[in-house]
Amino acid sequence: MLKVGLVGAGGISDAHISAWDAMEETHLTALCDIRPERLSRYPDKHGYTDFDQMIEKENLDILDICLPTFLHADYAVRALNHGIHVICEKPISLKESDVDRIYQAAGRHRAQFMVAQVLRFWPEYELIKDIYDTKKYGRLLSASMSRLGGTPKWSWDNWMLDEDRSGLVPFDLHIHELDFITYAFGAPKNHKIHRIKRPEQDYLNIVYEYPDFFISAEAAWYAAPYPFRASYRFQFENALIVYEGDQCTIYENNGAVIDLTNAHSGETGDINLPKSNAYANEIRYFTNCILEGRSPDKIKAGELTAILQIMNQI
To answer: Residue 138 region, left (φ>0) first, then alpha (ψ -120 to 50), else beta?
Structure first.
């Protein structure tokens, strides 16, 4: 059984902790956070407020990093230098140079590293990649993607609203869409950026251009209390695939409407959308890679570098 430790017991950690606890091949033994009150919520785990102490005492196989963005790279390298495999919340870093630094540390110590870009494991987004790869509905013509919500005012030490620590909307929200776009279609050939950046809110719209199609992506922290939502529309030659309001629907040009929201695998051979937890999916994938002695190359270093090159132009 693989021993797992997690550092950074903030909001996203809950999804990770439940995923680790659900797997038979792993045992989440320890949590680390500088806030003791965050650790008290999990009395069955060993709690640490000192990261080095956790690393020294726990003899971990895997470290899960759920820290604020600006700490990702340093903590990843510290764990990798101990030969510990690392899965890290998105984004990998604010700095392009950290990609090589992390992967070189992993290579030196024969440890595996993966940044948890969750849309690559989200069924509604995996669906789009499969339709694009198989050309089930012909060529992709255009797409729009969005990730919108109110300005977050709840983060520890208000780090999310500090550009030097979070990167604001580009790195906290838009990174999801750009990562999926790069994963599914390759690096964009060109992009056009529009941004309204103010102290109280941050809105971003980027059009990514490819030889045969374009994708418009928007992300926002609004000053108004707008409820969070993510959506997309992908226009193929023979169908429109829409994800909005947690519902996924295919509108075929022949008039058929396929609701995938509650679909399950069957024997018809038609497209189906199994319900699953994307956070659990990414953690399961990384764990299987460790158990099988293979690289988690569903997420490649070169892709992460290409993404950060664009991010740092915004």
So the answer is: left
